[in-house]
Amino acid sequence: MSHRTDFRSITLQDVAQEVGLSTGTVSRGLNKPDRLRPATVARIRDAAERLGYRPNLAAQYLKTGSTRAIYVVIPSLNPFFFEIFSGIERAALEMGYTAIVGHSGRDPAQEAAYLAQVSRGRADGALLL
After folding, report:
1. Mean pLDDT of the region 31-40
2. Would you say residue 51 has pLDDT above 60?
3. Residues 6 or more apart from 2 whose CB is under 8 A from it?
4. CA 97, CA 88: separation in Å to the nearest integer?
5. Which residues contact 109 (CB under 8 A, 6 or more apart)?
6. Which residues is 100 bridged to in the sheet?
7. What is this structure's pTM?
8. In Å, what is the CA distance from 69 to each residue of 75, 77, 95, 99?
9. Fewer C-beta within 10 Å: the chain N or C terminus?
10. What angle in degrees, to the nearest 10, is found between the helix axes of 23-31 and 38-51?
11. Where are the beta strands (DSSP E) in 50-112?
12. Cross-strand bridge partners of residue 102
């Protein structure tokens, strides 16, 4: 990977310019590679890696309507609940989700606040322990 002195994010357009393809073709190469020739996909992926391209998660959330995140709301900060959270987190990661721990202190208003975050689209769901 090359060393960059500017700190702006590398965009899909940057990768497209690097390989001389349209942004739509680059997007397909990264997200639906079976629709392109393997050599083209390899060029796109090599350029993306070399430039340090990382997908814009906010844009993906807008496109898919999914955050790929869940809240795990624990009632107290003790090792028992952290052990449970650890298992939930492993399972979530295997399914492509991020688990975010939230502490309610057994306060129904705080639990409701986490559920409200889900209804506002900040997470796809919540587990109340």
Report:
1. 92
2. yes
3. 50, 51, 52
4. 10
5. none
6. 71
7. 0.64
8. 19, 21, 11, 6
9. N
10. 100
11. 69-74, 98-103
12. 73
Alpha-carbon dihedral 22, 27, 33, 52, rounded to 10 degrees: 100
Which of residues 77 and 2 earns the better pLDDT score?
77
- For the cut 80, the answer to whether the pLDDT of residue 76 exceeds it is yes
What is the token pair recorded at 78? Answer: 């003790």
Quote the CA–CA distance of 33 and 23 in Å, as a whole number. Answer: 14
Whether the predicted pLDDT of 4 surpasses 80: no
Q: In one letter, which amino acid is 44?
A: I
Sequence letter at residue 128: L
Contact 39, 33 (CB under 8 A): no
Q: State both tokens at 1.
A: 């990977």
Question: Which is it for the CA torsion 70, 76, 77, 83, positive or negative?
Answer: negative
CA 26 to chain centre: 19
